[in-house]
Amino acid sequence: SQEMERAKAEITALEKKHEEELQEFETLAQESQQLKRELEVKEPLYRVGLDVRLRFLEYARESISGVDPRNLDQGVIARGNDATHRGHGEADNAALSCLRGAVPTANLDALFIDLYHCPTSRYLNWTEPKLRQALNYQAFIRTLTIQNHGLNRPIRERQSAMEHFQF
What we know:
Helices cover about 80% and strands about 0% of the residues. The chain is mainly α.
């Protein structure tokens, strides 16, 4: 009888421990899903940052290692230039999401809409890549116009900028 009570107490303790571990597992699974979603949102921002840093390192090969500029990887440089200077709605959404909580959401949403002429939810749900690309180019042109006082740029610079568009 005493042994039976001890066995029941042990079973109860094991069931409680199992329940606690199950609850901990569910919490960790939820946290894991949240981190995966956050990573998916921020992935374009990481990609853009990587392209910018790879461009820097490619130019470093010239200045530090003495590599002839003609031998630099022009693809790496072009991707870095695009990442730095072009509109990129997915990366901009990720950057703005990092500011949520520190900056009023309405301000962040308004900035995205001003740049891309649609809310982030609509931009991210478009499956047609050409449409996103067109919106990215439009944002680029708008900021280029503002940053460089529009048509005051020399014609060669404007032509050079337009040559990078791949419609």
